[in-house]
Amino acid sequence: MISWGRTFALRQRLKGSLWPLPLAGCLIGLVLGQADLALEAHLTLPAGWQYSAATASSALAAIVGAMVSLLGFVVTVTVLVVQQATGTLSPRYMRLWYRDRLQKVVLAMFVGTFTFAYSLLRRVEEATVPDLGVTLAGVAVLTSLILLLFYVNRFTHNLRPVAVAAGVAAAGAEVVGRAAGEASRGTTRDVDVSRLAAPVLTVSATRHGTIQAVSGRRLMRAAGRHDCVVVLVRGVGDFVPEGTPLMTVHGSSAPSSRELEGLVATGVERTIEQDPAFALRILVDIAIRALSPAVNDPTTAVQVLDYVELLLHVLAPLPLASSYGLADEAGQLRVVVPGRSWEEFLSLAVTEIRLYGDTAPQVCRRLRALLEGLLAAAPAEHRAAVTAELARLDAGVETSFPEAELRAFVRVSDGQGIGGRPSEFASVPAPRRSDDLADALDRSTGRQT
Asked: What pLDDT does residue 300 have?
């Protein structure tokens, strides 16, 4: 029997693979071709819908060649997308790009049209011309071209950094919402594992990989059957070398190591399914790449910060903790899983952007707006971490901008980086000369390049 972890990994592999749906399209095209040939013997179309053998052969041959060319075009576009995304965005984003359903539907339509037309082409004779099939093949070509237009429009718009950031943030917010709903049912925070009895079983990883997901409900049921507590040593997103501890079991008896390990899915890289921190990681990667000397595009970093802020506002009201205890229906603690505190999420979201963008005025201003917005919206227990980040931002501004006028300008909170609402600039002292501020900005920009 295939374990839950293997099933999850298989689903992830199928979601990220480009071949399953096109293969299904190939088979569907062959089946429809054979079905059409069987139907042609019992169907007579009007004269206006009939074709000569030469016309049918030419049309079907042209369709076969066109589908092969279009397949080559889509494959070329995919390769170019990979190069662009890994060069200007983040290689981690490609995992989401491979899952694009429209891309798979387009490939399936092209392959299906190819196999359908080819299966008809080999049966065209002077006495038997698949008139209905030739017409359907033409309709399939028209549908393929329409899908191709949607595909080209989609990837040209969706590969802009801000569009990528919006998609990643939406995926992360969905995961957070799902996790928050599950956590509201019998979950405790910051479980003190040291109070548990000595472990009766330590489950070690039999293969290396990154933990992609954990089946909390199945772990609870397994622990309930043996009246024990299962403690995960490593959490979702952690890399586990082969032979290292994966979880411990505390109680009088324990499920088998094989059963417990089968409830943890591992893979080559992290996924967003149960790991909202990975969504933040992708957003930060895009922002700091835009801030690198090779790219030097702080405006892109500011746009990405919009969606970093969105994800942080989703996380801020939640009772985040470094560990969570999952209880059964009777309220008995059964599973302890590692978590992430608010401080860890906040540090992941802003630290690297602050360090890489410390000489970009618009990044500092946008980051201040983000932190001040969190300070107003976050619950009381989360505000200390936000205040500490504001202090670090102030210290960085003090070091990076020695000119008093520019430093005063950079310390203003601006939701657009530079160019926000005029009221936000009211507290900025006026420069002594009209060109003082521009000169200071030029010197700051020179330090970035």
From this structure: 93
